[in-house]
Amino acid sequence: MIPMVAVSSGICISKAIVIEKKTIIDYTKDAHDINKELEKIDYCFKKTKLELESLNKNINEWDISFIFKKYIRLISSPQLKDDIEYNIISKNISAEYSIISTLDNYICLLKTMDSECFATKVEDLEEIKYRLLNKILPKGISRLKYDDITDECVLVVESLTIGDILSMDLNLIKGIVMMSGCQNSSACILARHFEIPLVSGLGYEEAYIKNGDTLLVDGNKGIVFVNPEDKNIKEYCFAM
């Protein structure tokens, strides 16, 4: 039994799929034409804002709409765009590299602050970074290999953004076990909205969870059983 933090209520049992969050981005570090790099920044900011506004327009649920409105406010911030453009000009770097380095610097700073509010902002910046880069990278950006998920499972992952969850086939995701993620993060709000049991705070125990392990997730109490005994399964069957 692994004690964790209960984030989204519910109980499920299914096979584990462990996904490492590795992002491989093919980009050039140095700028060959500063003006072209600045044009790319202007383009990806405009396209990302339009994309978020379009997504928000089709959403009726207030809790999900709140998330997209938050992203729209963030992408509309003059300070964010100015910092990215300043780094391009002052350091002679590409638009892609400036987006990554600028936002990663923000994220590193926020991670030093011990507050749930700042932890939520880290997730928000990760989502904005992915969306900006997807507008200007020829091959887009790889999040997680959700296409590999073809059967019902409990997803075991380091962390999730709203984009990650919306790119899944949620009919196959019976539960989520995360290493990090606060109660008010966008991904956790979505998990509760879609009634997916979710627990967070997985530490070194992750090394012992392997693809194909049977996981019993108790999102009410914040407990995970790895390859549970029959008595545990029978006990929880009455609550499912």
Query: Roughly what fraction of the amino acids lie in strands?
Result: 15-25%
Written as H for each helix and E for each strand, in order along the chain, the element string is EEEHHHHHEHEHEEEH
Instruction: Give the strand order of the largest sheet, numbering strands 1, 2, ... along the chain.
Output: 1-8-7-3-4-5-6-2
The N- to C-terminal Cα distance equals 18 Å
Tally the helices. 8
Q: Characterize the largest beta sheet: strand count, sense, and whether it forms a barrel.
A: 8 strands, mixed
Helix content: 40-55%
Structural class of the secondary elements?
alpha/beta
Average of pLDDT: 85
Count of DSSP E strands? 8
Roughly how many Å is the radius of gyration? Answer: 20 Å
* Dominant shape: elongated
Low-confidence stretches: none
Describe this structure in words.
- With 240 residues, this protein is α/β, with parallel strands linked by helices.
- 46% of the residues lie in helices and 16% in strands.
- The protein has an eight-stranded mixed beta sheet with strand order 1-8-7-3-4-5-6-2.
- β7 and β8 form a beta hairpin.
- α1 crosses α5, α2 (62-75) crosses α5 (116-136) and α4 packs antiparallel against α5.
Briefly, what is this?
The chain has 240 residues and is of the alpha/beta class. The protein is built from 8 helices and 8 strands; from the N terminus they run E-E-E-H-H-H-H-H-E-H-E-H-E-E-E-H. It is elongated and about 65 Å long.
